[in-house]
Design goal:
By secondary structure, the chain is an alpha+beta fold. 39% of the residues lie in helices and 14% in strands. It folds into four domains: 81 residues, no CATH class; 31 residues; 163 residues, Periplasmic binding protein-like II (D-Maltodextrin-Binding Protein, domain 2, 3-Layer(aba) Sandwich); 228 residues, Periplasmic binding protein-like II (D-Maltodextrin-Binding Protein, domain 2). It has 19 helices and 15 strands. Strand 1 and strand 2 form a beta hairpin.
Amino acid sequence: MYDTINLDGFSQIFYSNNMVQEKYQPRPDDKLGKIPTASKENIIQNKSEISHVENSPVGTNNTPSDENYPFHDYSGNSEEEEFVYTPKLGSQSKKLLRVLVMVITFIAILVPLIYLLTKLKPGDGKNIGVSGEIVWWGLGYTKDVVQPLIDEYVKENPNSKITFIEESPTDYRERLANSLSQGKGPDVLTIHNSWVPMFREALDIMPREFMTYDDFARTYYPVAVGDLTTGSGIVGVPLEYDGLTLYINESIFSTAGKIPPRTWDQFRQLAGELTTRNDKGIIIQSGSSVGITQNVDYWPEIVGLLMYQNKANLYKPAGTDAAQAEEAISFYSDFSAFDKVWDTTLPRSTEAFAEGKVAMYFGPARAIDTINKFNRNLNFKTIPIPQVRRNDPTEPDVSYASYWVEGVWNKSADKELAWDLLKFLSQPESLEKMFNNSAKAGVIGKPYPRIDMRDKLINDAVLGSIVALAPNAKSWYLAGGTNDGATGLNSLLAEVYKKGVDTLVATKNRKAAKNVVETISSEAEKVYAKFGIGPR
């Protein structure tokens, strides 16, 4: 008895009880139409041939020739029956089917995705952009300046809600500190560049997604990088730059035929020459509003500037550079003690300058708004800060920075939104829009904080002198007009220096400068210790 025999892949013959059944599997080159029917006689006749095929060694070539091919008609019967071929589903067909299913599935997923990406624009859906709700306490910006930018941001991020609160400068630092300590926020807060030690524990560290340290250092002036970098990272973003500059009354200079000063020696001479008194000896026009602490706005910055330019050590004035500190503080007090160009009978310096009573006045860019409130018709401009005489002409000119920055509360529930808003506002396009919005609102635009935007203002009659010296500006915790309260860093340190300056003015004794500096140094050390401040 024969069971399955494979004849070269073309047929399977099943032999049982002298019967053979054939299952035809075609070769690719077969031309099939009809196939002869095998009779019993020719099956028996070829039994020996089949046996021969079965018993042949494995691997030998037993392919039959055309003459004895198994499907020839051995019976001679001319009758033919119809053969219908039904192909067997092989592995290749299965693979093809699987590929087809995968393609259809991929298309079903891809088409809706393409539609969403190409058709759905910002503002069309509810899941676009950064989401959350934050409150921003802003100081120095009016709502009509920043609200258009906020609206623009919310349009691109429809799931965000941003509330801007225009804060009053009165007791601002104390109110802010209390609100944060009570866990009430705000999420975004404005602080002075010198306030980082006071708010260090409440400020969030700038994420790398916002900007890396290297990018920050390339984008902003070195003074901002130094002020805003802590041991943990960067804690704020400046939307402005500001610092001391020298305002001059052009009408007074023109009438007197004077040229603006470039050095402190020239400045001192001009301050005396441009000061006039009435017949009772009362000052009616001051050459410059410097020399005392009582009614001179920004006097702490002026003293700090003189200390830096004279290479004194502001962290420890009585150290190895004590002589430089003594000379700087004495130089400032001399304008009142000996030169008598300014005294307490005059209004506050910003107001006096606005009224046309001062030829030269020191102040930051933000003082312009105050000046304009008193007198919009004042004929003035600004020039770079005077410099001390130097033996090395290659040394850069030094100015003193005093500006405001934005930070993020580290306990905010929506810090991602807060940082993303600041990233949007800190872009050049946004800064220009805020600058232009300020002009529309009738206030001075903030000098740009970015190095790559310096050239936009370098020729400005008022702001040009500020950004001109920004690359080499210095800063310290001596800052006036910050409203940090009686217990604030600025107020405590200013009080230490105030006692020293007032002593020199009252005694008119330059020899007392040594003791004054030693006292300042020891008292200032206590202030620094309170806020965890070390040398720079």
